[in-house]
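Predict the assembly for these four chains.
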Amino acid sequence: MSLAPERASRLPGTAVPRRCQVAKMKAAVFAEVGRIVLEDKPVPDIGPLDALIRITTTTICGTDVHILKGEYPVARGLTIGHEPVGIIEKLGSAVSGFREGQRVIAGAITPSGHSAACLCGCSSQDGAGTRHGFKPMGGWRFGNTIDGAQAEYLRVPDAMTNLAPVPDGLSDEQVLMCPDIMSTGFSGAERGEVRIGDTVAVFAQGPIGLCATAGAKLMGATRIIAVESIPARQEMARRLGADEVVDFTEGDPAEQILELTGGRGVDVAIEALGRQETFEGALRVLRPGGTLSSLGVYSGDLRIPLGAFAAGLGDHKIVTTLCPGGKERMRRLMEVVAAERVDLRPLVTHRFTLDDIEAAYDLFAHQRDGVLKVAIRN
Amino acid sequence: MSLAPERASRLPGTAVPRRCQVAKMKAAVFAEVGRIVLEDKPVPDIGPLDALIRITTTTICGTDVHILKGEYPVARGLTIGHEPVGIIEKLGSAVSGFREGQRVIAGAITPSGHSAACLCGCSSQDGAGTRHGFKPMGGWRFGNTIDGAQAEYLRVPDAMTNLAPVPDGLSDEQVLMCPDIMSTGFSGAERGEVRIGDTVAVFAQGPIGLCATAGAKLMGATRIIAVESIPARQEMARRLGADEVVDFTEGDPAEQILELTGGRGVDVAIEALGRQETFEGALRVLRPGGTLSSLGVYSGDLRIPLGAFAAGLGDHKIVTTLCPGGKERMRRLMEVVAAERVDLRPLVTHRFTLDDIEAAYDLFAHQRDGVLKVAIRN
Amino acid sequence: MSLAPERASRLPGTAVPRRCQVAKMKAAVFAEVGRIVLEDKPVPDIGPLDALIRITTTTICGTDVHILKGEYPVARGLTIGHEPVGIIEKLGSAVSGFREGQRVIAGAITPSGHSAACLCGCSSQDGAGTRHGFKPMGGWRFGNTIDGAQAEYLRVPDAMTNLAPVPDGLSDEQVLMCPDIMSTGFSGAERGEVRIGDTVAVFAQGPIGLCATAGAKLMGATRIIAVESIPARQEMARRLGADEVVDFTEGDPAEQILELTGGRGVDVAIEALGRQETFEGALRVLRPGGTLSSLGVYSGDLRIPLGAFAAGLGDHKIVTTLCPGGKERMRRLMEVVAAERVDLRPLVTHRFTLDDIEAAYDLFAHQRDGVLKVAIRN
Amino acid sequence: MSLAPERASRLPGTAVPRRCQVAKMKAAVFAEVGRIVLEDKPVPDIGPLDALIRITTTTICGTDVHILKGEYPVARGLTIGHEPVGIIEKLGSAVSGFREGQRVIAGAITPSGHSAACLCGCSSQDGAGTRHGFKPMGGWRFGNTIDGAQAEYLRVPDAMTNLAPVPDGLSDEQVLMCPDIMSTGFSGAERGEVRIGDTVAVFAQGPIGLCATAGAKLMGATRIIAVESIPARQEMARRLGADEVVDFTEGDPAEQILELTGGRGVDVAIEALGRQETFEGALRVLRPGGTLSSLGVYSGDLRIPLGAFAAGLGDHKIVTTLCPGGKERMRRLMEVVAAERVDLRPLVTHRFTLDDIEAAYDLFAHQRDGVLKVAIRN
């Protein structure tokens, strides 16, 4: 083959040569704790149910930084990343309903569609192939148990369940948040069962928390109180729906929220950081009968204070949610974007090419220069 | 007045003389930590929305023992008890829809019907009269914030919301569990959203846990695993619906349950004791996406182990429930009894008269002689 | 008493003299079919659970026109109207939690709070005092079974359940739609369980339909297709959230909607007129598994076409809703207004004083001059 | 080929010879209106996602009789039947998680797992391959759009979503009702959201209605009123959970039910016949706020009487359900059987071999000899 994979990747609709064993691509791989590096790897082979996607844009997630730091272990050599926007390069032999050359996204979570978890309504806990069909976080495969999206090409498993065509007229950056943070953030409001007229607190306004704020507004919350201290994030929170912002550097945020609500507390509190303080704060501001919707990834045991929990007698709910995936979820989120109900483009504060992804990691991991999300383009 | 109140109380339908200020009754009151004693108190006055009930049968709850021991503080002199079966003696001037002489029960929780909490669907957290209409555990008034049911007479507030006529043909003991443990225990299954075909674990088979077991069966669970070590309670658990019983003295109950389910875990785990071990065990046996339904009254902070919680990414739910009350709830529970779907009479292991209630407390507080529940008759 | 009731009604906080039997007020009463007239009536007496409200603003509903035309029968001499904004003039002896002089609204539906229907979560079907506690439409009392709001004074039954204080800063007209059309219209979206990303059709854009459109948007629908032919209503529909408007004079609206959605149909179809054509159209545009949320008041039997119903095998739902009431509902709706999530003031197209209410009926009943809603001020 | 397909079908685990084009089997095919006949057909080929099942037991459904009579059109030559119990003969190349020789069932409805309908929670309306992913009744493939189960072999599409291993110890007849009537009947109670303490009416006690009765009991209904006139079915209804049986030949069943309930009506009414009379009766007996859960297959337009529908203001719900399918549903239903919560074996009143299936159709279509369900054995 005379066509180098690098060039192939830039020609829409050009199939990767099948028999050429040497077809290579660039990919950001976990080398060791502290090092995610750009390497050459073979373009993935695909099975009958898979699709091969040529990535056009992707991004870096806070979870990837946990991986970088060794806080979440993955295999050495694994390609990182779970937020793909791209073009179908090749479809598995048993895949129907799609065509090569289509612009698509896939969720960070790629359910099989046929596990017991999927058929039970909790597809993120997909355990296809396991004895019972459930596996904690089993739906999270990209950049976790299989190669991920920070590469030129990506193998999407169970393609018929996971490929979601991008509506005409939407740019890559407009849909870049759908695979993970928009799906996760919105689910904080959805699983919290936010209702018209609710007061909602959202603890932390990083990318996920900002999307939770937007989701709460989209579902009819009428008073949204965001907790955040960084001015740029406070500003973004207001832009996406926060009615008030509480700065935790100016006093206990739970107390501030209780004061703002005249002691009533909130109907739904969304935790979007993954820390004891925010979890506990979210519980403390709940009215009796309220719901704590937890989105954060915790790194240690949590403590439930007796009083905030009303000794177990407060009719409280605590719900946790891993990012919902699957093509129908992605379709709905892209509808939100297309209908201009929410515009998350301002979250993309910095742009890099895949060639410069190591610099992107450096910026993002250190939260320099007011970064919220980066776009990585091929 | 020639008619002594003691005698009046034994004549069905005989109204307590209204203007006689000296009408007295016997009542079990909290004297000080360690002492609940039978005393003479005035028969309660009633307001326009109240009813006066002549108690025919009541019982003692584990919560009353907490009060006795000073673990849950109440005012000195308060009449204890929240599980009334009796006869309407007098109705407030604004009460309609009932008649004196009717046999009734009232729930342990007596919602007002008009608080924001009631109108929001969480009436146990009734905060009528408070600024926002919510108050943690606010619906629990009997033997907590107002005089309770271990007496000859009981004032029932918001009578139109709370009085539930006993269907003909049901004995006092048949409906004695409805006000509290049946309502609480069943709610463990209901709030856990047990579905047909579910596997359910119930941690602890005291009176509440036994009712949770019965409730899970009533909702269609097909495999119910009860955790209990006392043989009589194990036997009762099987009788009420447990398919298997795990003895925690024979090894970690969570591990036993995981082994019984081949590692899958359970769809719903009900905690019915109020201890860190049982809370944690319930979390550990949950399948991803499962629900921990907590009924216990905790006495300290709780710890959520990171692993069992899947770091917050397991799509788990934790729900807590205070006993649902109100006349419609009571009607439904008495329907269950009348239809012979569940028979809780075997839970009454000992019987006393009100005169002997101090002995009843002694037996029950020390859990002597295999006691499950006592009946206190007037 | 020297103070004429007409004057008393204009002095905020002036209590109506209690013992003066001759205190009179003006009220719009149903005289006979075709005639609703302004008459003098006694200011209502109140019972212990009631409140007396001095009406400051009210409005006329399409249902009142049905009454006027004799299509919905009420007693002669009954005061009409069920949408009150006013000031507490007097509180019943057993009412607590409110104070005279407070600005309040009450819902069109005034649940008792203590009926089985209330305690079951369907308080609009309140049957307090009936044998079982359910009565079809039993919660609708104002201007139906008791005197209504088109008067100088209104007796509000079960005041503790129904009085909702108006937040400071909101004008009468800002909250005038809360008692009925906002509550009803929103409930079309709520009972339809609109979700983020849904496509929703709303059949007819009268006041209720317009509020259904606003409600669907508030809950996260991303494509709202309104059916309407009157240009001013089409314009209002777009202003309140419709993405597209279908004109039924330009062809079968169901076919137009199916074409717009590429044959897919909608997730939720809201019927807001009460006619066979709109009911049937709503059914025909539903995707399999979709929900028809019906708000209209029908005047004859309905026909379900076999095909649109998939012979009963389409996993369809049809839900009907009578306007939700009660103070907590009102509070939430006023929160929506206060938070500026929805502004329904433009619906008030005409203003009258109570003295001129007969002219207001004439305009509204004949739908002259592009009238949407009228404000009737005292 | 020396091995006749008839013999192959009797040897467990014997693979059908792959390359032998002449491998034949017997199958009951729709020949023309009025004639379903046993014919020789090729053993089905399977694709990568399919499984080939050797049928050991199947049955005839009322729907098959509709097909026989030409009331529901299918292609000539199509193999009929959608209730398979059998043994995995061969697995498609992309199928994992199962092994040849396993005893399995598959639901009457075989969702793909990857359609929008599946990912939306209404997999029976599967529209895999269609533009939007929804198709009315699209999940019903066996004996409708592809060859069915009344044959020696059956191709199961999307095998990973649909094959459900039969627990050890359960006979074919014990699980024979799971694929259709148990799943459908139970769903009548499930979609009706039967709660503990509900009163439920079930109109008609054919196989589906009987399963609806069993389902309502399993979910905690405390008063189940069955409508049926045939003594054997009345008896079976009582056995499966009916507390009372109303005979429609002795008077209007709706009036009888209203009388039995003292005028209150029922919380949930399940329609299990598919006729105007039963649909209308179910609506008439509903309390305000109640749910009509419709299971019948209708053959004409339906009429909703204005009064029973409270003019659209009764907070009623009407829900329809097509039999839920998929392996997880089947697993749960088999759990119900294994746990002995419900025993549907008595529904099998007659047994035939596949060779005699024409006689079975004759008996079943004419409802002779008290037939409820037949078992067809290979």
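DSSP finds twelve helices and 18 strands in chain D. The longest strand of chain D covers residues 24-32.
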